[in-house]
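subagent[fold] <- orchestrator: predict structure for attached chain, return tokens only, no commentary.
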Amino acid sequence: MAIIGPDQLNRATLQRQLLLQRERATVREVVRRVVAVQAQSPPAPYVALWNRIADLDLADVDQAFADRSLIKASLMRITLHAVDVTDYPAFHAASTPLLRAARLNDRRFRDTGLTVDDADGAVAPLLELLETPRSKAEILEHLADNVSSEPRLWWALKTYAPLVHSPTGTPWSFDSDTRYERAPRLDRPPLDDAIRSLIRRYLAGLGPATIHDFAQFSLQPMSRARPAFEEMRDELVTQTTIDGDELFDIPDAPTLPDRDTPAPPRLLAMWDSTLLAYHDRSRMIPDQHRPHVIRRNGDVLPTVLVDGRVAGVWRTGPDGIEIGALEPIDADTWEALENEARLLLGALADRGRDIVGRTNSWWPKLPITSAHSVER
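subagent[fold] -> orchestrator:
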């Protein structure tokens, strides 16, 4: 059984997440290869894909959302993700028990006096309404007329019902006036099959990984994740970390890159999936930086990768992009980071001058050792 060190695991993640080298591929192909792109912030999928696709035209991301080949919905970790439409049924089926329990067992729902049956009974009529995209106001009116005017009913349903966000147009396909529509009518697998499918997709895009890593990525309870891995053991490849933890992978995975494979600097999007996909976050984030880039309220700041790991943060503003280092960065790396910032500014063009505004509230509290600005 092969033993894999932390540096090689880091390079494996960068390779499969297309962060060692941008590739010429379609938006849909890349989203499928990286499993899912986090999408709490509307610009985040655009920046994430810009980091992975050579010469990306952001209009191609617009089109993927517009033609529903790429859809945005609450999925793993009770978080908004952009996923390939063909992945949605299995991802949602695997996530539904978590999504449903997280809301219907929450005191905020229980205190409404509504029952689980009230919520579940509202799903089918709601999906019929959402054959046409609807605003929150329209949905609340429908629920008030048919079930309850309690707004926390919608808070629960929008999390676990099979519905997706409906594109509203430029600059980021989705805006604060969120509209919702019924999820595409695709075959939905049984729960056990869905979890196995999600495991395969996770390992293809983020492996090798431990069962605990998968549980972190998906928030599947270990009582469900461990038996699924054991059932799949014969079809998976196993390896070991230097600490003795068992790693799983798909049998046709790419050859692991060498631990010394060059890793170019990158400006990752807010909530980039690579930072949240593992139980052992040190694969991508040095322990000393973790509390600074993953905030207590759940924000994950736009980060700077140097030699494959987080070394700083960045933000946009009226005048351009500012990069803040959390550790010493040499002159050549600063030059490469500034070039990345110029390329990103060119890609963003007139999309908006402040695309990571939530970072501004954290910026003064960060232990930034040095900063460089790149003007538009």
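orchestrator: received. Logging for downstream: The CA atoms of residues 35 and 202 lie 6 Å apart. The chain has 15 helices and 14 strands.
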